[in-house]
């Protein structure tokens, strides 16, 4: 796949996933030549329906725990299941995807003299003991708990990225992604936005784990993709890590009530016992993103949820 002059050859691992497919839409729309790599564990080629007919987009079914050899200028390493129900299904494979996947992509970047961006996560902060988490916060993480395969896998990937940068001068970028939502989230994703929307559309009770006071912040996927592209395009000396998300903190009860309102559902709310190691608060400090990327989330929660609900309704209509 040879790009024309002025275009970049870009590899997106996890490219058939929720965030990856939106990122490919953006990059393909800019005229770049794209390699989309995915093993379809949680991704779907249906997410790529709008771009696979583009001659500049090539899909490769591949697991990043195996080495890959391509000629590329940039790599976005997004490959890893991000939902607890998926990453806890095979925790050893989840850890291997984060660690071996990062190492393989770093080796590729090193061999190609390519720039590489790691999709890290707010989970590196664990159950934070401070209200808004800046990038300087080292976290409060249980390394042996049921979520550790994901949390520690991503922390290890960050370690590898900075060691490759220091030892081999690999051109790296590290993004710590906070909760992201939007069209193409799997209906069985298992995280709170998709759970609440599916339950509300069915008229089922919305299930809150705990007393509803736990908080998250929710970033619409288009905003997140814009942040990733902005980070990739920074000067070489800017490595991150940098938080990308929305800094409007919302309680689970507030989110449930808003989704019931937007879906015009009659669903009740039910409270259940909390799950182990579930963080009580999660909200990014976006000072660096605003200052260094000139980036800030634009889509309001109400707007983004309305667009996501519409996409879920369309899926339900198609399934009937």
Explained architecture:
The termini are far apart. It is built from nine helices and 13 strands. The strands form four sheets. The chain has a seven-stranded parallel β-sheet, sandwiched between helices. The protein is an alpha/beta fold. The model has no long low-confidence stretch (mean pLDDT 93).
Number of strands: 13
Mean pLDDT: 93
**Alpha-carbon Rg, integer:** 19 Å
What is the CA–CA distance across the termini? 40 Å
Percentage of β-strand residues: 15-25%
Order of strands across the main sheet: 3-2-1-4-5-6-11
- Poorly predicted runs: none
* Helix/strand order: EHEEEHHEHEEHEEEHEEHEHH
Please state the structural category.
Answer: alpha/beta
SS element count, helices: 9
Helix content: 25-40%
Using the alpha-carbon principal axes, give the shape.
Answer: globular
Biggest sheet statistics: 7 strands, parallel
Concise structural overview:
With 320 residues, the protein is α/β, with parallel strands linked by helices. Helix content is 37%, strand content 17%.
Q: Which terms would index this structure?
A:
two-stranded parallel ribbon, 13 strands, globular
Topology:
Blueprint: E1 9-13, H1 18-29, E2 33-38, E3 57-61, E4 74-77, H2 84-87, H3 91-112, E5 115-121, H4 148-168, E6 172-177, E7 180-181, H5 192-202, E8 206-209, E9 215-217, E10 219-220, H6 221-232, E11 242-244, E12 249-251, H7 252-263, E13 269-272, H8 287-292, H9 301-319
Parallel strand pairs: 1-2, 1-4, 2-3, 4-5, 5-6, 6-11, 7-10, 8-13
Antiparallel strand pairs: 9-12
Helix pairs in contact: 1-6, 3-4, 5-7, 5-9, 7-9
